[in-house]
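Researcher: Structure for this, please.
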Amino acid sequence: MMRLVLIFSLLLSLSLSSSAQTCSTDNSVSNNLTYSSCKDLPYLNSFLYWNYNSSTGSLQIAYRHAGVTTSNWVAWAINPTDLSSAMIGAQALVAFRLSNGTMRAYTSQITSYGTNLPEGKLKYDVSNLEATYANGTIIIYATIALPSNTITINQVWQGGPVSNDNPAAHPLASANVNSKGTLDLLSGPSATGNTGAPAPNVNSSSNGRMLASVLLRFSISTLCGWKLIHGILF
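Model: Predicted structure, token format:
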């Protein structure tokens, strides 16, 4: 009996872990595009998807920031200088939900600490900028024109509260302070080893729950079977 309990526990833990989101298992990013590369960012429940043409410098990105509310702003930025200052000099894409229920997505060039992220033109041309909010997740979509043959960029991502339809200062927790890094645009498929971000419009949490249900039924049927065998033989 103890062995069956252990088997059931193992199957249940596997099914629950299968529902955890990563950039290669969550399929909520679409925007009518399939992204060839994705990366799980190490802080702030964030993920980056991208397509990149090095000869033209065209970078299509989808930045997904989970675990937020309608009272939060999120941002993803390129810092063309370095990462020592992180924020200062960052060329940011900002998005949040307005009090009227619509999404605001815009560009902001960060020139000082304590900024409220005013709208402004970036050093890079940005097109197709838009954002969505659903189920506690904000996704920013954009196409950025980088210098041709760019290989790596310094990326910064962030999130904070919204006050009166304006971004307020972000927290100074460790995750917020460390949300920066270097991104190799030519690094290819997803960091988890898949051949790219999956096809859109599939709910990964539903997949996880479905698998959990199947495994649960399998475990119960197995348990019942063992009980029957035990009753016959012993």
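Researcher: Any notable elements?
Model: Residues 93 and 225 are 57 Å apart (CA to CA). The radius of gyration is 22 Å.
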